[in-house]
Amino acid sequence: MKVRVTVMLKDGVLDPQGKAIAHALHVLDFGSVGEVRAGRVIELEIAETDADKARAQGDAMARALLANLVIEDFTVEVVA
Amino acid sequence: MKVRVTVMLKDGVLDPQGKAIAHALHVLDFGSVGEVRAGRVIELEIAETDADKARAQGDAMARALLANLVIEDFTVEVVA
């Protein structure tokens, strides 16, 4: 199964990458853009046929390696 | 409206970050993990009330700045 883990900075944590993107978009005349938050997405192929087990594995991997839980939140979706 | 742009390397483009994550997960005993692909997600607050227009803006911003279309694909979703 394919699992997608999305990692974003927690609300309230300063996001300099997002601020830089917002600034660049304003320079490019995208004036309607407000707050921008940047994050990571990791797609993992897991040798598992049960969606719940695949999701649980993705959750365990996010906690062990993919996310820094002090400053980041993550979500896990089974996509295929 | 809030728009989420997800940027991933195209299939066939070498993904060293994904390979490094896969290796680290194997070291951590997640043996069921196969291919791993890493990408970026950018959440943008757009001053627009029409979902189709917000999506079109996200698409234009991805083409102008957020994705390198030579080696990357992107998807745009309206999330709120």
From TrEMBL, chains A, B:
Keywords, sorted A to Z: ATP-binding, Cytoplasm, Ligase, Nucleotide-binding, Purine biosynthesis
Protein name: Phosphoribosylformylglycinamidine synthase subunit PurS
Annotated family: Belongs to the PurS family.
GO MF annotation terms: ATP binding; phosphoribosylformylglycinamidine synthase activity
Record keyword Iron present: no
GO cellular component entries: cytoplasm
Summary of the function given for this chain in its UniProt record: Part of the phosphoribosylformylglycinamidine synthase complex involved in the purines biosynthetic pathway. Catalyzes the ATP-dependent conversion of formylglycinamide ribonucleotide (FGAR) and glutamine to yield formylglycinamidine ribonucleotide (FGAM) and glutamate. The FGAM synthase complex is composed of three subunits. PurQ produces an ammonia molecule by converting glutamine to glutamate. PurL transfers the ammonia molecule to FGAR to form FGAM in an ATP-dependent manner.
Superkingdom of this protein's organism: Bacteria
Matches recorded under Pfam families: PurS
Biological process (GO), any one: 'de novo' IMP biosynthetic process
Principal subcellular localisation of the protein: cytoplasm
